[in-house]
Amino acid sequence: MSKNHMSGQIPSHIGSLLPNLQLLNMSRNSFHGSIPPSIGNMRGLTTLELSHNTLSGEIPVDLAAGCVSLSTLKLSNNSFHGKIFSTCLNMTNMNLLHLNNNHFVGTIPPSLFNNSGLQSLDIGDNHLSGRIPSQIGDTSKLSTLILCRNHFNGLVPFEICKLQFLHFLDLSYNSLSGPIPSCSNFTDLKFMHLENNLFSGFIPRALSSSSSMISLNIRHNYIDDVIPVWIGGLSRLRILLMKGNNLHGHIPNELCQLKNLSLLDLSYNNLFGSLPSCINNLTFGRSIFLDDFSVGEVSIPYFSYPLNVDTRDIYFYEEREELKEVEFITKRMENYYKGGILNYMSGIDVSCNQLTGEIPHEMGQLSGLHSMNLSHNQFAGPIPATFKNLSQIESLDLSHNKLNGTIPSELIELYFLSVFSVAYNNLSGRTPDKKNQFSTFNESSYEGNQLLCGPPLSKSCISTAPISEAPNEEDENEDNENIVSFYGSFAGSYLVFLIGTIGVIYFTSQRRAMCFLYVVDSWCAFRLYKLYGLFSCK
Ligand SMILES: *[C@@H]1O[C@H](CO)[C@@H](O)[C@H](O)[C@H]1NC(C)=O
Ligand SMILES: *[C@@H]1O[C@H](CO)[C@@H](O)[C@H](O)[C@H]1NC(C)=O
Ligand SMILES: *[C@@H]1O[C@H](CO)[C@@H](O)[C@H](O)[C@H]1NC(C)=O
Ligand SMILES: *[C@@H]1O[C@H](CO)[C@@H](O)[C@H](O)[C@H]1NC(C)=O
Ligand SMILES: *[C@@H]1O[C@H](CO)[C@@H](O)[C@H](O)[C@H]1NC(C)=O
Ligand SMILES: *[C@@H]1O[C@H](CO)[C@@H](O)[C@H](O)[C@H]1NC(C)=O
């Protein structure tokens, strides 16, 4: 009955009426009320999905007692409360247990892990607390473990390292402390999300064996380390987010080995030295790959997996509205680039460090980059003229550095630029012509540069201002001609721009172009993507 507009309560006698039912899927409706206890009578029930409704109350005792046959139980995105201990008392057959986005309280019962068959556990977004039980290591087949957005605290038990088939680990937004688990067994791990906890100490070297890693997020912790050189060995890495720790030392050249990296966030650390000039080795979206990132996880909207779940390669994110959320600051907004969107988003943020030296001109080769934030460092020297090649850039923030020289006038060729700041540097000379995107930037993009002149700044460039003569008739005529030719050339440029844009959209792969249009507003894009499955643009 899933994905309809049904409402009302689940009939109280459903379990007595349909005692032999094996699969009950009522997800994505508007059912309310509580689960009728009679469901516990369905002794052959293997799959029960009630997710995405407005159900509430506690899980009835009868279900908890009669759940032994269940292999899939999804109650996500409702308003259930009570303790998860009472969800199912004998989980012998449970493969997949998703209780995320509810109001469950209490601790994780160790007996939850008394089941070596469990492959997927998602109890994120609840009010659970206490420690992660060491028995977690007993669920040897676990491939997905999501405990995010709860109140878990204490150390992560080292037994977690026994989970050698783990693909997806999300412990983010808790109060976990101590070292990051140092597991050389995590060879299959693709996603490791530990952000917003109290982890401290080093980035464990053992993670160098996680050569399948696609996304590593340790933002907002207390990691006190250098960026390890072995990170260059995680060659499949697409997303590396380490903002808000105490990373120090240089950015190692080995980082440049991460050729497929498209999101890099090292902001709010204590990194010093220069940006490695080899940074142009990184892809930052120059080519678009789909296969890697859409292993049936997120990107296929109407993906449904077989009843006998083989989670080795299958995630179930379609069930979690939040999906796998990676937030990356761009355009002065915190946008959440979700799922498939990540295939099209690319950015580098090294803001708020102590980086010095010149901005490597090689960075101009990062033609797929959408967002660059080098602000609040001590970069000196000129803005590389090569930046005119950053043809996809939408957000460029070089503010609060020690840059000098002029602003390359070619930057006006960056047609997608919507946020631009070079404020608080030592730049001099003229501001770029108020053409194209640059007609939209105001004073704040340039302020704090003593020697900069020209609109939109109030300071005009005196030296180049024409010496005014007393007007005579000839001049007036000339003026009129000038105005005519001005409008003429304006209309001309506009037409050229319009035709150019249409041309680009038409002649590059049409699907790619379509994608771009939707990527412009990622949130909108995500919704469209969910609604119409538009992201099949391969
Ligand atoms: C759980 O159910 C299985 C299969 O019915 C049974 O063998 C086992 O003893 C039960 N475990 C507990 C703790 O009741
Ligand atoms: C774990 O499960 C086994 C078999 O179902 C059962 O005999 C045992 O009592 C359970 N242990 C705990 C701690 O629940
Ligand atoms: C790695 O996993 C295996 C199998 O689960 C386990 O026996 C071993 O203890 C684990 N290694 C570590 C360091 O935990
Ligand atoms: C980078 O991505 C491409 C496309 O997904 C893949 O073929 C390639 O193996 C990846 N590179 C590495 C080093 O994993
Ligand atoms: C239940 O329905 C939802 C929504 O249609 C679907 O995604 C899910 O795969 C279904 N579950 C099973 C086990 O068929
Ligand atoms: C760049 O980073 C700084 C510091 O993190 C932030 O304040 C600023 O808003 C960012 N710029 C853009 C354009 O996102």
UniProtKB/TrEMBL annotation:
GO cellular component: endomembrane system; plasma membrane
Pfam families recorded: LRR_1, LRR_8
Subcellular location: Cell membrane; Endomembrane system
Chain segments annotated as transmembrane: 486-507
Keywords of the record: Cell membrane, Glycoprotein, Kinase, Leucine-rich repeat, Membrane, Receptor, Repeat, Signal, Transferase, Transmembrane, Transmembrane helix
Topology in membrane: Single-pass membrane protein
SMART domains, per database record: LRR_TYP
GO molecular function: kinase activity
InterPro entries reported for this sequence: Leu-rich_rpt, Leu-rich_rpt_typical-subtyp, LRR_dom_sf, RLP_Defense_Trigger
Keyword Coiled coil belongs to the record: no
Coiled-coil intervals: none
Annotated SUPFAM superfamilies: L domain-like, RNI-like
Similarity remark: Belongs to the RLP family.
Protein name per Swiss-Prot or TrEMBL: Putative LRR receptor-like serine/threonine-protein kinase isoform X1
